[in-house]
Write a structure and sequence with these properties.
This protein has eight helices and no strands. The chain is mainly alpha-helical. The chain has a single domain, classed as Flavinator of succinate dehydrogenase (DNA polymerase, domain 1, Orthogonal Bundle). The mean pLDDT is 80.
């Protein structure tokens, strides 16, 4: 009986040591945004060629604005969704066609790259260094007026022309 108790104690201490040793080697696959670990493991678009946008022949300005509102809201990361959707709500109506096309190209970039470029955590690649749209987005991200932002309602996002 004493031998059985000793064996169980040995097994329990062995499994605790094994678990704690393996737990130390495991890394969290879901890193928190804006941490150095996340920034170091996220690939940057500056390493990759510019994405090729989908051709949209004969798209009206109204349809383009509506599409850009939707694409600004539904990115996949909440941080980028909030940043771009509030930017779109404040700026899309006043943008000219050239600015809309540039914003459309920016939305083709990966979410985290847009977020890091606009929050100035990473430098943008050469193709975006002198972009007026990215400058406006950076100004919006600074939120110098300390505005409390929330996702805008879709029904008020774009009015029909």
């Amino acid at each position: 009986m004493l031998r059985l108790v000793c064996q169980r104690a040995h097994i329990n201490s062995f499994s605790r040591r094994t678990f704690s040793a393996s737990a130390l080697r495991l890394k969290d696959p879901w890193l928190l945004p804006n941490t150095p670990e996340h920034e170091a493991t996220t690939r940057s678009a500056s390493d990759m060629p510019a994405p090729t946008p989908l051709p949209r022949p004969n798209e009206s300005l109204w349809k383009m604005r509506a599409r850009l509102v939707y694409q600004s809201r539904k990115r996949g990361t909440l941080e980028t969704d909030l940043l771009l959707s509030t930017f779109a709500q404040e700026n899309l109506e006043s943008m000219q066609e050239e600015e809309l096309r540039e914003y459309d190209k920016l939305l083709d970039e990966p979410d985290w790259d847009i977020y890091y470029w606009s929050t100035e955590k990473r430098p943008p690649p050469e193709r975006w260094e002198n972009s007026p749209i990215l400058q406006k987005l950076r100004q919006h991200a600074r939120n110098e007026g300390k505005v409390i932002r929330r996702m805008p309602d879709l029904s008020q996002a774009v009015s029909a022309e």
